[in-house]
Each structure stands twice: as C-alpha cells, then as structure tokens.
Amino acid sequence: MTIQKRKVKKLNVLVGGPTQQWPDTLKSGQIEGPWIGVDRGAIRLLQLGIKPEIAVGDFDSTAQEELARVKEQITHIETFPPEKDLTDTQIGVITAIRYFKFEQLAIYGATGGRMDHLLANIFLPLEPRFRPYVTNIKLIDRQNTITYYQPGMHEIKKEPNKKYLAFVTLTKVDGLTLFDEKYPLNDYSSGHPTSWASNEFNGDLNHFKFDSGIVAVIQSRD
C-alpha cells in the first residue's frame, strides 16, 4: 500500500539501539506524532502498543513469529537486502523524507551500543542529501538531546530535566560566540571538530551565534 506524502509537525523514528537508552516518555508510550520503525525498532514499537505507519529494514535477524506480527499489524513495509550501503538510521531518515513533510524529525534508539553506529548517527545530518533537513533533525535518548544549527543568531530553551549544555563544532566553524551561558565564549573559529562540553544555562533561555559551519548543541544530564 502506498502512503501519500503528508505534512506533520513531529515525526518519530525508532532504530534498534539499546532500550536502556530510551527516555521514559518512550518507554511509557507518551510521545506524540506518527512513527517509522526501522528493523527491530518496528517490533519494539508494537511491543509498546504503538503501531508505526511504516516499517523498514532487512529484518534478517528477526524471528519468524516477530516478522509475522510486523506483517500482520503494519500495512506499509519496505525490505532491504542484508548487505547494503546504508545504516538503519539512514534508511529511517530517507524513508521519513520520502513520505513526510516534517517540521521536526526525532530519532530514538540511535545511541548506546557500538561506537561506530553512534558516530555515524551524530554525523548523519552532515551528509549532502540530509543537509536541507539539518535543523529539523534531533537525536534523543534518556540523558541527551542533540540538535543541529546552521549559521546565525540562535536562542535555545532549557529542557526541564537537563543540567549540562555543550556546543560541538562538527565542521570548520567561524565566529562561535556564547553570549549568556555560564561559561561565555567569544568569536571562536576552528578548522577541526571541537566539543565545548560541560557548559550550563543561565536561566531558561540562552543565546549563541556563529558565522559558518554546522554546530550541534547537546543538552544532557547525569
């Protein structure tokens, strides 16, 4: 069955990272918006009582009874060969772009486990095919929220359960300035990635700017 592309405010993707890294809102099924389940992520959503609109993946390590449940409950399923040039997260984002116009794409299950997968997921928005969506993509787990920014002046709002704030220059960056954070920074430029870690908010709203490149902002807690 073909899904007609439609506009949504928030779209969620669940990939197969460790469930221990899920935020409590996911474990309790309190996240709003439609879902795409990638490989084992589709099975885990069904176990939570959430029916994803699309399931994608190679399903090569899926038990027959689990795959049968996916086919029974999810109308739109797309399968990929086990040997492919795409990660599960790339497949999820490609599927999201193909079938939805979203304001925010929240990706869960993308952290924990293998370090190569974590790095691939963090750097994913830098790929040319995903660059138009870089500011729409957000990675979320139980301790961290990662958002991406393009050059300009920005205001960031503190999440209620987060204490720490980090600014990560993922590319060559010019003019990074932190105006009102606990530890200010003035006109920083660098040709290599740098993580300005363990900063903190002053108040509920803080501001920063930069002139070129891509910066990831991480709100986190212990």
From TrEMBL:
Annotated keywords: ATP-binding, Kinase, Nucleotide-binding, Transferase
Protein name (database record): Thiamine diphosphokinase
Record-listed E.C. numbers: 2.7.6.2
SUPFAM superfamilies listed in its UniProt record: Thiamin pyrophosphokinase, catalytic domain
Protein's UniProt keywords contain Flavoprotein: no
GO biological process annotation, one example: thiamine metabolic process
Kinase recorded as keyword: yes
Membrane-traversing stretches: none
Species, as recorded: Paucilactobacillus vaccinostercus DSM 20634
One Pfam family per UniProt: TPK_B1_binding
GO molecular function, one term: kinase activity
